Amino acid sequence: MKQKVERDQILGHEDEADGIKEYDNPLPDWWLGLFWITVIWGVAYLVHYHFIAHRSPEAALAQELADAEIRWATPEAAEAEAELVLSAEAVAEGEGIFRTYCVACHGANMMGGIGPNLLDDEWLHGGTSENIVKTITDGVPAMGMVPWGPVLGAEQVNRVAAYVVSKNAEALGRDPSDALRPSEGS
Ligand code: HEC
Q: How far is the CA of 87 from the centre of ligand 1 (A)?
């Protein structure tokens, strides 16, 4: 039990302290209680932080940087990642894009109209996949071919190019993956 202490005794050194008088009372219980709670909390937090959760500012920073990498990835990086693949899914997706954006000029059968036939072996701008992706991305504005890069984005350009490449190869009885090789002429 707490022993009875005499309260409100003045320590009697006001002459050294510009006349400020000081009592020698114990700290209030609520204050001491809070103090001990913070001490216990501090110890528990330290143990949890270092030995249970293994948290570290370094790991937190690395995580934030990784998140930023995804969030602020440059369009160039996204473009490099969107590769031209000739999978059935890519070609099917490309067909949908072609029907939406391209048939008006190249025809539903791809044999041309306002734009040239895409099923023959005559290419104004080269017939490798690289050439085709470039023509679709940059367009030929002077001749009425829209630059589709900014409209569709690299991934969709690659899908529709995959469709053009595979349909062209089919029409000519070739292996579509031939077009993936870098050009020997056009
Ligand atoms: C407004 C009409 C128009 C639309 C829509 C259009 N094109 Fe074209 N496209 C053209 C014209 C015109 C040319 C020929 C450009 C030239 O003469 O240099 C062309 C050329 C091309 C070529 C190059 C052909 C070659 O011989 O080198 C490809 C590939 C092509 N277009 C694909 C597409 C795709 C894919 C789409 C849809 C995303 C599309 N085009 C939409 C008008 C169009």
A: 23
